[in-house]
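User: Show me an example of a complex going from sequences to structure tokens.

Assistant: Sure. Here are the input components:
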Amino acid sequence: MSDDNETRVRHRFVGLYVLLLGLLGANMAGTLIDAGGLAIPIRLSVAAVMVVVIATSFMRLRQSSALVQVVAVMSLLWIMFLFVLTFADFLTR
Amino acid sequence: MTRPNNQTTVIVAHQFETLEQQFDADLLGMWLFLVTEALLFSGAFLALAVYYHQYYDTFSAAARELHWLLAGFNSVILLTSGLAVALAEQAADQHRRRLTLWWLSATIALGVAFLGLKGYEYYMEYRAGLVPFLDQPFAFSGPDPHNAMLFYNFYFAITGLHALHMIIGLMVLLVMLVLTYRWREGARVARQVRIAGLYWAFVDIVWVLVYCSLYLLGR
């Protein structure tokens, strides 16, 4: 890896780290505002964005092989099944 | 994909044809393990979500007793450790032994700081009478203490499970530190640090969700 490329990768990691801190700060600051019924979806969405940033960048999912990407997406799918089917039953009783 | 170079110095395990193939198999194995871990935590989060839905007011009141600012600071520490391990991976890829040692040490120090602060937070909750076990009187002053106790059971179970994963991650990173110090095969060290980094990043992800669901949702 050339020095330029090394520096670029390092800067990208630092930039994403700053982004994560910003999202964390936004989520914390959001608790001071009364967003009503939107509060929970907003907080969960910000946390979900943080998860995606960590998974795609720090865990290098974007650069991983197609097989690893399929495994990661499938795990998300199974977790969605878990939540959707449980709540489909629970909320319709 | 970033791969370790200097492949000629590495002994490839007999069941693989190339180092790349071995590296891909190692990564896939770690990802599959992390999927099982994600499902384990998902079960806990699902149960929390169901009870949160059922006892929203009580759970929110109980969540407001937690030290969310201290935990927020702890989140910063853990995210910083995530950056440090990513930089350790990059340094190991470049076969820069000293830099790898430095970033791994920083990651471990930040991880220990996180656990120390978490322990202090547990101590404060113990002093406030919010621990629903250890034969301590439950001193929650809000409404519906019986179901608030359920929230604190979730809180201690989920954060305790996360802390256990942190301890395992720290032990793995300590082994990486020793292997990096010895530096027998640069490419192998890079591969091992990368896989350890995956586990640490997963621990980061779990904490992001723990912090949001236990500390912030009820506020």
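The lines above are the inputs; the final block is the predicted structure for all two components together. Chain A touches chain B at residues 1, 6, 9-10, 13-14, 17, 20-21, 24, 27-28, 30-31, 40, 43-44, 46-47, 50-51, 54-55, 57-60, 63-65, 67-68, 71-72, 74-75, 78-79, 82-83, 86-87, 90-91 (CB under 8 Å).
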